[in-house]
């Protein structure tokens, strides 16, 4: 009766029944099953089961852009790489950023992985680890960002980043970023200068 009073809760229960059936049918290891349930439980508890991308992408273009800017503008403007970027470029970057969820202990990337995207922390905490994956080099939280060298140079990561707790991140892929700055030649020159001045490694 309670479930019927809350349609979104009902959808969550139905979805978990299907997921549990699939995991049992495929014989997934118990640890993997637990993390899958944990992931969906977090999405239900914090997001009421909604898919941010699906909701925002379904909006008409002008409203889509407005909502994307509202959600992401503050964190974009904190990135030194985007200092001085015009409103059109900030809008294009906001539209290109995709939401991701990581569970406690998840590795977002490891040292040596090929760098393909940078990340913005919407909510949560991550640790930047040394190559030994033990020593903590830095701790980042809400509004912080990491991985920007990969965005412009695409070279292997020199550190490992791990989620401390549940993390809501936004990712900006290098291929998408390259397409965006190709339409903003003046800013591309700015990026090239910054890479030359600031980035000697990843």
Helicity range: 40-55%
Strand/helix succession = HHHHHHEEEEEEHEEHH
How much of the sequence lies in strands comes to 15-25%
Report Rg. 19 Å
Shape: globular
Measured distance between first and last alpha carbons: 55 Å
Largest sheet: 4 strands, antiparallel
Number of strands: 8
Total DSSP helices:
9
Order of strands across the main sheet: 1-8-3-6
Please characterize this protein's 3D structure.
By secondary structure, the chain is α+β, with helices and mostly antiparallel strands. It is built from 9 helices and 8 strands. The protein has helices at residues 2-5, 7-26, 30-47, 52-57, 61-77, 87-96, 148-153, 174-182, 185-198; strands at 98-102, 107-109, 117-123, 126-129, 136-140, 145-146, 160-163, 167-173. The strands form 2 sheets. Strands 1-8-3-6 form a 4-stranded antiparallel beta sheet. A 4-stranded antiparallel beta sheet has the order 2-7-4-5, with no helix packed on it. Helix 2 (7-26) runs antiparallel to helix 3 (30-47), helix 5 packs across helix 6 (87-96) and helix 6 (87-96) runs antiparallel to helix 8. It is globular and about 55 Å long. The mean pLDDT is 84.
Q: How does the SSE layout of this entry go?
A:
Layout: H1 2-5, H2 7-26, H3 30-47, H4 52-57, H5 61-77, H6 87-96, E1 98-102, E2 107-109, E3 117-123, E4 126-129, E5 136-140, E6 145-146, H7 148-153, E7 160-163, E8 167-173, H8 174-182, H9 185-198
Antiparallel strand pairs: 1-8, 2-7, 3-6, 3-8, 4-5, 4-7
């Amino acid at each position: 009766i309670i479930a019927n009073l809350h349609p979104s809760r009902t959808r969550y229960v139905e979805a978990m029944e299907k997921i549990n059936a699939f995991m049992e049918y495929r014989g997934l290891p118990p640890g993997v099953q637990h993390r899958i349930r944990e992931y969906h439980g977090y999405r239900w508890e914090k997001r009421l089961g909604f898919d941010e991308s699906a909701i925002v992408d379904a909006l008409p273009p002008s409203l889509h852009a407005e909502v994307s800017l509202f959600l992401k503008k503050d964190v974009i403007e904190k990135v030194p790489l985007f200092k001085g970027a015009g409103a059109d470029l900030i809008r294009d970057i906001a539209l290109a950023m995709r939401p991701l969820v990581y569970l406690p202990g998840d590795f977002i990337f490891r040292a040596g992985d090929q760098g393909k995207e940078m990340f913005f922390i919407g909510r949560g905490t991550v640790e930047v680890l040394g190559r030994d994956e033990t020593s903590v080099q830095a701790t980042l939280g809400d509004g912080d960002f990491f991985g920007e060298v990969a965005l412009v140079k695409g070279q292997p990561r020199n550190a490992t980043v791990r989620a401390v707790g549940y993390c809501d991140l936004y990712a900006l892929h290098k291929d998408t970023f390259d397409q965006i700055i190709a339409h903003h030649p003046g800013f591309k020159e700015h990026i090239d200068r910054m890479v030359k001045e600031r980035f000697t490694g990843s």
